[in-house]
Amino acid sequence: MGEIMSTNLPLQKEFNQLLSEKAASALPGKLDGKFVAAACPAGFNYGITYGANAYYNEQTLSTLNSTIQTDKDGIVSVSAQKLSDLLRQVFKSTAFVFSKATQKKLNEWDEAAEAQIASVLSAFTDSGFHFTDPVPPGGKIADVFNQLTEQYGPVTETCDNLPVYLTALKDALATYIEMSNQAYQLHSRASQATAVLNAAIQNATAPTAKNGGLQTGDASYYVAFDKLPTANQLIGSLGTGSNALKIHLSGDSFSSSGCKVHVEGKGDVHIPIVGLLNITASHSSQVDVSEFTSEKTSFSIDITYPGLTTVGVMPLSLSSDNKLGWYAVNILREIQENTGNDNADGYKLLGSEFSVESLFGPKGRLNFLKTFVISREPTIDVVFKEVNVAEFKKHIHTDNSVKVKLFGFISLGPVEHSYTLDKVDSNESEKSVTMHFAAPDVSGTIPLNQQVAYVLGGVPAYT
Description:
This protein has 463 residues and is of the alpha+beta class. The chain has a domain at 2-86 and 225-310 and 372-461. 32% of the residues lie in helices and 29% in strands. The chain contains 13 helices and 26 strands. The chain has helices at residues 2-7, 9-26, 58-64, 83-92, 100-112, 114-126, 139-152, 167-179, 181-205, 231-238, 329-338, 356-359, 389-395, and strands at residues 36-39, 44-45, 49-50, 55-56, 66-70, 76-82, 94-97, 214-215, 221-222, 225-226, 244-255, 258-263, 268-271, 277-281, 286-288, 298-306, 309-312, 314-315, 346-349, 368-375, 379-385, 399-406, 410-412, 419-427, 432-438, 452-461. Helix 8 crosses helix 9 (181-205).
């Protein structure tokens, strides 16, 4: 399959461009950016909630939580990598770091208050606390502020928000703050930034009802998303027959090396015959229609995507009080702008596990679809002329369980043998064959939470 896809890359690019233009035309005002075609073999589970308890469908949420990947040829696909998992890993490799100039000033102020800092550190450990290993940027005094902010909120100048039983620590900190208020301001800024980072990590790691998580079972939750449509809304839109996108392709000029494909409104592309249309039926091995073609053969293929529907959903942003959500775009922006810049204060990547180049930009690992464009499983009408009909009929006939692949890169059916070849008309005198492929009606036969729509692509959120 890889060889066919590589050979047919020019056709795939033309097809994806046509699909992009058709989607933009068919969905005026419904796309919040430029549509890109994206492969998603697993499809989209449109039963967002289901059952008596209306629990959220984890399969749907998992798809929404997927990142996208763009290969070296610019072909986009929905990946198995989950955004929340990757974001958590990135944030664990991130710290709020001062610039060299700011850190120099802070060190000078802290050196002047060195004796008092020693009293703070002693009172901190005497109170039962332990220093983080490794100690964060800023040293142990920064760790004191980070831990206290995490547990009790930002440390005030009078330390009155700390518990009464920490009297010795409160007194030592208050004296330090009075001696070096400028250093306190910086430590306070850094500790509050660290609390935001830790909240994003925690909420992405352990979703709960309290942090906005979506309930998927009696005691299970998934990371939160905003503006989710209802299952009924999606079912209604997918069932609207007038919401359809259609694509027409045709071909001729067959030879031993291949044939010419005409993409609607685009140029002509020469492709190998092998892989033009592959059909794997339940009753036989794979059949390649190239076995029945000749130099005079021509074909037309019409693909219809019925029930064209947009699903615009975003990860729930981390709230200003750090209690809800997990998607902290402000942290990501600072990581992108500050990493590698010694003159900037803010969030920066530490270590070598991640790089700005790999995470951000058009091919960045943190990109995802903020709007999915889905439809019911497409139907395909194929007409071949000037073919060996007698030989064709020996291998291909109506079948309720087939797997279809066009041109080596368009796979139909979320699982093998999930399509029907419900019409095969042939005319030996005209040497023509007409085939109609469609997905079976799943209504009433498959539980709602397992029913799947086709993903055409969507609008990427480029981080």
